[in-house]
Automatic annotation (TrEMBL):
Xref: InterPro entries: WD40/YVTN_repeat-like_dom_sf (IPR015943), WD40_PAC1 (IPR020472), WD40_repeat_CS (IPR019775), WD40_repeat_dom_sf (IPR036322), WD40_rpt (IPR001680), WDR31 (IPR040066)
Record key words, sorted: Repeat, WD repeat
WD repeat residues: 98-139, 141-182, 190-215, 273-318
CDD domains with a match to the protein in the record: WD40
UniProt KW Repeat keyword: yes
Source superkingdom: Eukaryota
Protein name according to UniProt: WD repeat-containing protein 31
PROSITE patterns, sorted: WD_REPEATS_1, WD_REPEATS_2, WD_REPEATS_REGION
SUPFAM superfamilies to which the protein is assigned, alphabetical: WD40 repeat-like
Gene field: LOC101395830
Keyword Repeat set for record: yes
Pfam families: WD40
Source species of the chain: Ceratotherium simum simum (Southern white rhinoceros)
Length: 366
């Protein structure tokens, strides 16, 4: 079944430009988005026209809250439709749908080099899924009193850490689905969790404006970073485990920044990335193969994805996804691709282009 939307051009009333949205299959379409390229000095701004891109079958029928890369071909996403979807973003096909949650999906965490992953929901449940197994959850983890807002898998995949708005972190044995540790701190409304590679440490952001480093051996706070001025919405750890980024809420340019921290002995603030106008919802370290310098990317409720020089804080490129609504989640797809979830237009496939320097363009949506 096809829905047809037509836009009449005022200057040429005899011509009709039509856009098709397919329930099944994929179609080609051209849309215009605003992109901004910044020189290193941050002064000159150049407006660039994006290229044509593909519209695939939509993965979800409502807002997408989270997207994560399962491997270099597949992503896993969830949202308000209460469904977890495994999607091949290179072919534009749904691989599998997983249903079991009763409310919106809030977080997804994938097991490294595996076809298994976890989903968390506003129904206070965490479920473990197997891409090649049953459509029913392999394990269920239930102990939180409020919405689950954090998921992190240990490097050896034997433990799962969950966090919630109930101020509690729980550590689980993945094999038995039994809770083995519990920690609670007043006003510590968890917003995100991330396990430090090759270490027993878990990074956590909170609505109390702080970033905490937990030791999973006993689930104790190992370090409390200096409090920021706004809610910390998200965190990410570099592949080498030496640095981490956290994101801030905000409005009108107040707050709305990402912050780079040292995770080694000093654990100091290294750099800030300012330029968004609304809450920064997600941040990622980009693969070193993308640029000669280390770079990070951020996505925001202001509909923009920005690429930053990690060392200097200079904004290298801005892509504005007009009509997408707030951008809710960002994930690295492969060495040249990003996956960006949005409130109004599903998931955007973005590609880094070196044709005229470091640029970011949208190549597909689903």
């Amino acid at each position: 079944m096809l829905l047809l939307r037509c836009h009449l051009k005022r200057a040429l009333p005899q011509k009709v430009s039509c856009r098709f949205w397919a329930v099944m299959g994929k179609l080609q379409s051209k849309l215009k988005h605003s992109t901004y390229k910044y020189r290193p000095d941050g002064i000159t701004e150049e407006r660039i026209q994006t290229k044509a891109f593909q519209e695939y079958s939509p993965a979800h029928v409502d807002t997408v809250s989270v997207v994560a890369a399962l491997n270099s071909d597949l992503c896993v996403s969830g949202g308000k439709d209460k469904t977890v979807v495994a999607y091949n973003w290179k072919t534009g096909n749904v691989v599998k749908r997983f249903k079991g949650h009763e409310r919106e999906i809030t977080k997804i965490a994938c097991i490294h080099k595996s076809d298994q992953f976890f989903s968390a929901s506003r129904d206070r449940m965490v479920m473990m899924w197997d891409l090649h197994g049953s459509s029913q959850p392999r394990q269920q983890f239930s102990a939180h009193a409020m919405v689950v807002t954090g998921l992190a898998v240990s490097p050896d995949s034997s433990q799962l850490c969950t966090g919630s708005r109930d101020n509690t972190l729980l550590l689980w044995d993945v094999g038995t689905a039994q809770c083995v540790e519990r920690a609670s701190i007043s006003r510590n409304l968890v917003t995100h969790l991330c396990w430090v590679p090759r270490e027993p440490y878990i990074l956590q952001t909170s609505e109390d404006k702080t970033l905490r480093l937990w030791d999973s051996r006993g689930l104790q706070v190992a370090h409390l970073f200096p409090a920021k001025q706004h809610i910390q919405t998200y965190c990410e750890v570099s592949e080498d485990g030496h640095k981490c980024i956290s994101c801030s809420s905000g409005f009108g340019g107040e707050g709305c920044e990402a912050t780079l921290w040292d995770l080694r002995q000093t654990r100091n603030r290294i750099c800030e990335y300012k330029g968004h106008f609304q809450t920064v919802a997600s941040c990622v370290f980009l693969p070193r193969a993308l640029a000669l310098m280390p770079v990070i990317a951020t996505s925001s409720h202001d509909c923009r994805v920005k690429i930053w020089n990690q060392d200097t804080g200079a904004c290298l490129f801005t892509l504005s996804l007009d009509g997408s609504g707030p951008l809710t989640s960002l994930a690295v797809g492969d060495t040249i691709s990003l996956l960006c979830a949005s409130f109004s237009r599903g998931i955007h496939l973005l590609r880094v282009d070196h044709g005229r320097g470091l640029e970011l363009r949208e190549v597909a949506a689903f």
